[in-house]
Amino acid sequence: LLALLVTLIWGVNFVVIKWGVAGVPPFLLGGLRFAAAAGIGLLFVRRPNIPWRWLALYGLSVGLGQFACLFTAIKLGMPAGLASIVLQSQAFFTLLIAMLWLKESFTAWQLAGLVIGSAGLYLIGGLGAEGLPLLGFVLTLCGAASWALSNVVVRRIVAAGFKPDMLGLVVWS
To answer: Are 55 and 166 a contacting pair, CB within 8 Å?
Structure first.
């Protein structure tokens, strides 16, 4: 039941974004969203014990990069349901960024997943995308890449010997 609730909240989130950007500019909506969360969260959640540069890099990648791109994509006509699916390509980008930045390698199964995922994205954004705004699709992919960067930043923080409280990291970012 909890998994279904999370899925429902995740899906409804994209519909609410679609409604929000219909009347409010994407960057303002994102700023209001984060200001509301931080306004409450900063009162109750301690700052994670990590250097400010890591906190800033995480915040810029997940907060500004992911949501600015996603909100703008939806404003430009990216369907909310499709955006929620395309945004999951962050798993694809996480592998690639970890390979480039952290010099990690991936397995044959992961490579097969990358190929299949790429084919699926091509089908969504290429062949089966009649009426899909290209810029909206590309911005959603950029949002996914930003989310992936934030995943790798967390791995880098942990590799540097820090054990951040994830709630604190999200709230303070």
So the answer is: no
Q: Measure CA 149 to chain center.
A: 9
pTM summary value: 0.86
DSSP annotation of 102: S
Instruction: Report whether 114 contacts 55 (CB < 8 A).
Output: no
Tens place of pLDDT per residue across the chain (173 aa): 898 998 888 888 888 999 999 999 999 998 898 888 888 888 999 999 999 999 999 999 998 899 999 999 999 999 988 888 889 889 889 999 999 999 988 889 988 988 888 888 777 766 556 678 889 999 999 999 999 999 999 999 999 999 999 999 988 98
State how far the Cα of 97 lies from the Cα of 30, in Å rounded to an integer: 25
Cβ–Cβ < 8 Å for 167, 115: no
CB 66 within 8 A of CB 118: no
Q: How far is 75 from 89, CA to CA, in rounded Å?
A: 20
The pair of three-digit structure tokens given for residue 133, joined into one six-digit string? 């705004």
C-beta separation of 88 from 144 below 8 A: yes
